[in-house]
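Technical annex, item 7. During the second reporting period the consortium partners agreed on a shared format for inverse folding records so that results from different sites could be compared directly. Each record opens with the tokenized structure and is followed by the designed sequence. A conforming record, contributed by the partner at site C, is shown below for reference.
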């Protein structure tokens, strides 16, 4: 590799190395934050405190009740009235509808949104006419960067 090209990569390597160090520090800080929150919550509960103010910040304990229902038992007991007490769960809706492709397609047309991947597949498999998409979309270029970690790589 020519010397000038290698030199031009040094600033990028330095920036990448710093980014890796910062991300490592963020992971460490996030773990410490979780631990401190847990310790503070436990101490406040033990002391019977609902809130604690320090400087311009206030730590507030909030409680909520989590309820886990026995779905099968309630379905059996309530029959069709079960529909009155439930909300849709996206993953379950999709798995049930995939078992009935006609019904799935009908509902998907009412509730879905075009996906670039699905559009490409439909065109490649000649299921739709590519001309139908003329003037029916806009393209925007979005630039992002990902940092991939390699197992055992030094920071």
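Designed sequence (site C submission):
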């Amino acid at each position: 590799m020519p010397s000038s090209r290698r030199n031009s990569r040094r600033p990028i390597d330095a920036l990448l190395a710093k980014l890796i160090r910062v991300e490592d520090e963020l992971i460490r800080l996030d773990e410490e934050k979780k631990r401190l929150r847990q310790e503070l919550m436990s101490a406040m509960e033990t002391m019977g405190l609902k809130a604690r103010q320090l400087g311009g910040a206030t730590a507030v304990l909030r409680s909520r009740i989590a309820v886990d229902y026995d779905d099968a038992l309630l379905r059996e007991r309530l029959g069709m009235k079960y529909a009155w007490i439930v909300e849709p769960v996206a993953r379950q809706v999709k798995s049930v509808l995939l078992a009935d492709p006609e019904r799935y397609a009908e509902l998907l047309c009412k509730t879905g949104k075009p996906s670039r991947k699905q559009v490409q597949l439909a065109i490649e498999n000649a299921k739709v006419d590519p001309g139908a998409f003329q003037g029916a979309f806009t393209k925007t270029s979005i630039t992002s960067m990902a940092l991939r970690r390699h197992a055992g790589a030094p920071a």
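Strands lie at 51-54, 57-60. The first helix runs from residue 3 to 47. All partners now use this format for quarterly exchanges.
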